[in-house]
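Lab notebook page, bench 4
Experiment: in silico fold of construct C2
Operator: M.H.
Input chain length: 766 residues
Purpose: comparison with the prior construct
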Amino acid sequence: MRLGRRDNGTAGRAPVRTADAASPAGATLRRRLWWLTLAAGVAAIGGYFLLPGGGLAQAVTYNVMGLLSGLAVLVGVRLHRPARPAPWFCFAAGQFMNVAGDAVWNICEYALHREPFPFVADAFYLGSYPLLVAGLVRLVSRHRGRGWRHLLDAAIVATGTGLVFWVFVAHPAAAAAANTPLERLINTAYPAVDAMLLAILAGLFTLAGARTASTRLLAVAALMLLVADVGYSVLTARLSFDDGNPLDAAWLLSYVLWGAAALHPSMAASPAAAPQTLGTGFGRGRQAVLAASSLLAPGMLFVPGIAARRGDWMVVAAGAVVLFLLVSARMSGFVNQVQKQAGQLENLALHDELTGLDNRRRFQARLRTALDGGPGCIALLDLTGFKKVNDQFGHHVGDQLLVEVARTLTAATRDAAWVARMGGDEFTLLLPGASRESATALAERVRQMLAQPVRVAGHELLISANIGIADTGGLADPVEALRRADVAMYAAKELGEPYRWYDPELDRRAGEDARTGAELRTALDAGQLRLVYQPIVELPAGRLIAVEALVRWHHPERGVISPAQFIPVAERNGIIVEMGAWILREACRQAARWRSDHGPAAPQRVSVNVSARQLARPGLAEVVASALAESGLPAACLTIEVTETAVFETDRAQETLRQLDRMGVRIALDDFGTGHSSLALLRTVPAHALKVDKSFVDEVTAGGRTSVIAAAVVRVADALGMAAVAEGVETAEQAVELHRLGYRLAQGYHFGRPAERLPGAGREAA
């Protein structure tokens, strides 16, 4: 065929009708159609050269393959349904423009027996390139924000290399094969636009996620066009082809490849699947290529003979101007990108990634500004029960809960406060210029909103919060303001209050706690802690059944210190774990000695209280097993007493109690009736005894609701096979009434105060 068939299309046979595209066979055909098209196209190219060279049969075959290429693109869009089909419609339109050019050329050649050049057919051929370029540009622009950057890079490389191509290949070939300036312009236009297509494809290939099989086929198709057009410009000036132009193979293969690219399933791949990065796109290799390309234009001015050829000199000068503009645009984009990323980094540095609230750094900056502006208030909020949500449902649900809490706090403040997440489950509220009354009202509003169940990941979660509030009047240090709110928050947590204001007395107490904690560490090492034992008796006779081990601190200067003063401190600083292990070992050792010394007169069991912190940490069962093994005390002779609140702290607490139960250790629920879910505990915890709280015993003789509740508890315990122990019995009347209600075990000052001696034995404990 004569040149005029400058096409970027791919061939393909007309798509086979897929009768049942939804069936497995239809799906398989859809996946294989691209390479079936490729194989059929290559076979058709071979058949093309078996036809008489330069004849009508070859011309018709050539035109049919071009037409089928455009149809294949449309079939590919129909089969794979890309999210943005516009680029492929541009490709199909470009193919049909080439077919129109072929038809016009064939009419002229075979009907009018003329072969004019330039001709109307060239307008159709060259008109197809804007459509193909538009399609490729739209493919690149799908990669939001990144495509234009890579297009500029490709344009810089294409302009630099295109100048070299013009000076050393295209212009000499066009000048040799053309007699008029118009002929030279048209001859050089074809390879020039081919190079542009390749440059755009090169820009597409530099995008992560864009290097698909479909884009690779497009790149080879464009390369075939460039080879054919350059070859035609160079070879036809020196050679004649009577039996068909061998360069037709390259043009026809371009047809085939373009159709195969449209039929490949990857043509519908979404660019959103590509990984997103914050990189600038200026790697070392890219910088080197762009620098070399931008220097090609001024570098060619030093090539001997270029300055003497006015046409080449003007093209190189124009190319240098274009390169300058492209590099300027690229650098402007680079600067904008760096500024954008700097803003993103600043935003990340000052905001919490999970909730989007201000983080600690941003909040402290706002707090410093607020302190300079006058008095106000600051609140520190800590969620209650958040750790249990993480343990039970996982950190993913915990994170969603934090997001919902952030939304709740933002809604509760109504723009009256700055909300920040300090880390973990702690949030802060800054109320510039707020009075104590308005800050208290806000804390109450937050408490009410957080009291509502939160639905997260299909779960109804109920949480609460402890809030510490501090007045910032007269303060200049943000750290001190936060410290005061923190002290108030921990005071609210300790007392179970929803919120509490800071006052200097809290600092005094905190100082005392720190001093007590330090002295307690010394007391444990120096042997200042001692155990006393309170009897648990059988009603009505008052026979000794068991004892409860209680710890006392014999301070060398302050005398005997009540557990109410040092146990909470030990809980907060964690020394309760070590102290609890010592109490377990000492109580087991003493109980074993009593059994050895007094036989049947010894208490049947010894009860030891275990704290929430001990239950929450792993290894309690091993500590109990070690204490029993060292002392020789049978496991059935040891009762572990736990409060309802301690059991509900973590899932590990209940698992630890189940381990102890399997060991044969008895479990008693202490202070029963004062927790928040007593009946649920009876179902989930392997308890053997209920110790009814003193608050129910105090008024048991007065009748009324208290007496009814006490009677109900003992009936529940009997029905479940548990022992019910009445705590805090102080009078004979209470003991008689409790026995009448059904209680058989009791404990209190009426039967004996805690002592180091064996209760009722009349002899000193070892």
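Observations: DSSP finds 26 helices and 16 strands in the chain. The mean pLDDT is 81.
Next step: discuss at group meeting.
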